[in-house]
Design brief:
The complex is a heterodimer of chains A (258) and B (313). Chain A contains 10 helices and no strands. Chain A is an all-alpha fold and 258 residues long. In chain A, helix 2 packs across helix 5, helix 6 packs antiparallel against helix 7 and helix 6 runs antiparallel to helix 9. Chain B folds into 2 domains: 221 residues, 3-Layer(aba) Sandwich (Rossmann fold), CATH 3.40.50; 71 residues, 2-Layer Sandwich (Alpha-Beta Plaits), CATH 3.30.70.100. In chain B, a hairpin with a 2-residue loop joins strand 5 and strand 6.
Chain lengths: 258, 313
């Protein structure tokens, strides 16, 4: 008897998670990278930035959102790579709806994201004396919301990759660099020049970072309005998920092997 | 349901490159049909269209009663494809890949382990079950790709070049398993470049060229359709005369008569089984004695050459 849609989606998710957690060393490297960034650059920058108290924790939270962004980007890129490695055509041949395949990719990305960022998150919350069940729960929700938005965006961009993987890589690299640099990941809008602040205020990643800071209880005075940030993040999620499902159902095919 | 697959003006184009050009092909339920054609003739495109991996640019196909455009999920529930080049699961082990595949088609957990073990053994992969996919040889990876279809036995089994990279023993195993699949009720479509594979497996053969179906028929009918395809070597007990050549040339079905030695003729005929009784009667009435007759049938290569004008399958 054929399994129902959710059952096949769960089977695929379990299969993909097995692969994602196949290399514990890689996960450890990820945490090591965070620890190094936080200890070395965080300490250094907290001495350079004198306009904020406790800048180290501001930097640490920005770093966690950056890690989340990177993992979500990985999930999107993985989808593109799966097309070029011949894996996607197999997935497309399985008894699984295109929308279910898209949502499986999103859930996989969120699960991998949480597995990667959870230890750094707990550490930063603990070090900043903000570790509570509520802060942990809300930060998980915000980071997942951010990840869903980014994965949806990256999968949507994969349509470009089916024509040219090089072009996709260039666009994603450029977009990522701009999103990260013109955001509030490392500096609040209040400390930026007006022009830089306007650009950062138009960047969804800024809202993700500041919403995350707000829900864990950091001082909200230098942050973007949390209510606006929540609205922006929800809009980003809905928009990119809609776009992702549209592209998946209408345009995605097994890419011819090259 | 008379046909397992019926394509209706099925087309696929990549920009200006037409890979499949208005194909109308019918696959009967319960048969093994082999698609033969030169590289780029549209075989793989057709297989990927009817398994809904690709979307048609025009037309459609009905697979086991389901439209590939309107009901792709239902098509995927009854049709499974084994791809030409096995790739993509680098970090997984063969046992995990087969188990996952079985789970996607609803094989219950308690049966899965036993089924996977049996399939791995049947395809000579048991000793490699704990290797990662990226460490398998090309032949092992290909056997694994084919083996996937044997853990759930789809109603429509589609194989794209099932034995490329596989050694001789492995080829025979795969061919026998494909035949077994048909005997157990599946309809089977095989695309191949190997004439021997086509001859071994096919109930019917479809020859593709330039994105179109050129001909579909049984192997024997295709061979019979080759004009002058049967070669008859006749050795006489006496030298060949002009009258003998003229007499043989006048027999219906004779394509060409060549003198190859003093007492030997080589005659190309359409169907030797129709031609020989008439020739022996005439030779007997001429009072000429025959020493030997040898008949050589056309190969599938000859069939292919006739229908595609060359290029190799």
């Amino acid at each position: 008897m054929m399994k129902a849609g959710l059952g096949t989606m769960a089977s695929l998710l379990a299969f993909d998670l097995r692969e994602a957690f196949d290399s514990p060393l890689w996960v450890a490297y990820f945490w090591l990278f965070f620890a190094f960034q936080f200890a070395v650059y965080g300490s250094l920058m907290s001495r350079l930035v004198v306009s904020m108290d406790h800048y180290l924790f501001y930097y640490g939270t920005g770093l966690i959102v950056l890690l989340s962004f990177n993992v979500a980007s990985w999930a999107g890129r993985r989808f593109v790579e799966s097309a070029h490695e011949g894996r996607l055509r197999y997935l497309l041949s399985l008894p699984l709806g295109r929308n279910e395949l898209f949502f499986e990719q999103v859930v996989l990305g969120v699960a991998v994201n949480l597995s990667r960022v959870m230890p750094p998150l707990v550490f930063v919350l603990w070090a900043s004396h903000l570790l509570t069940a509520g802060a942990l729960l809300y930060s998980v929700l915000v980071l997942s919301l951010t990840a869903v938005g980014i994965i949806g965006l990256m999968v949507s961009l994969s349509v470009i990759a089916f024509r040219s993987f090089d072009m996709y890589s260039a666009i994603v690299a450029a977009a990522s660099a701009l999103l990260i640099r013109f955001s509030t990941l490392y500096y609040p809008v209040s400390s930026m020049t007006p022009a830089y602040g306007d650009v950062a205020s138009a960047n969804p990643l800024s809202y993700g970072a500041d919403l995350f800071r707000a829900v864990i209880g950091l001082d909200v005075s230098p942050l973007l309005d949390p209510r606006v940030a929540l609205a922006v993040m929800l809009a980003l999620c809905v928009g990119t998920v809609f776009m992702g499902t549209f592209f998946m159902s209408r345009m995605v095919e097994g890419v011819k092997s090259s | 349901m008379e046909y397992a697959v019926e394509s209706i003006d099925l087309s696929k184009a990549y920009g200006s490159n037409v890979a499949l050009d208005g194909l109308n092909l019918k696959v009967r339920e319960g048969e093994i049909i082999v698609l033969l054609g030169p590289n780029g003739s549209g075989k793989t495109t057709f297989l990927q269209l009817i398994s809904t991996v690709l979307k048609p640019s025009g037309g459609t196909a009905i697979v086991m009663g389901h439209d590939i455009v309107g009901e792709p999920l239902k098509v995927r529930q009854v049709a499974t494809i084994s791809f030409q080049d096995p790739r993509g699961f680098w970090r997984h082990k063969p046992s995990h890949i087969l188990s996952f595949h079985a789970s996607m088609y609803g094989v219950p957990g308690q049966n899965r382990r036993e089924l996977v073990e049996r399939t791995l053994k049947e395809f000579d992969l048991w000793d490699s079950r704990e290797k990662k996919f990226m460490h398998l040889s090309g032949g092992q990876a290909k056997r694994l790709e084919v083996a996937k279809l044997f853990v759930h036995r789809p109603r429509l089994a589609i194989f794209d070049e099932p034995t490329t990279m596989v050694d001789l023993d492995g080829k025979r195993t795969i061919w026998d398993k494909i035949k077994q699949l048909r005997e157990e009720g599946s309809t089977v479509i095989v695309a191949t470049n190997e004439v021997r594979e086509a001859e071994y497996l096919a109930d019917r053969i479809t020859i593709f060229a330039k994105g179109r179906e050129v001909v579909t028929d049984s192997l024997s009918n295709l061979k019979d359709s080759v004009r002058g395809g049967d070669v008859v070597d006749i050795e006489f007990a006496q030298p060949v005369t002009r009258a003998m050549v003229d007499e043989l040339s006048s027999v219906r079905g004779t394509a060409k008569v060549s003198l190859v030695a003093e007492g030997r003729l080589r005659v190309q005929v359409n169907r030797s089984e129709d031609w020989l009784p008439e020739v022996t009667r005439r030779v007997y009435s001429m009072g000429v004695k025959l020493s030997s007759i040898k008949v050589t049938e056309p190969s599938l290569d000859d069939v292919f050459m006739q229908y595609t004008g060359g290029g190799g399958p």
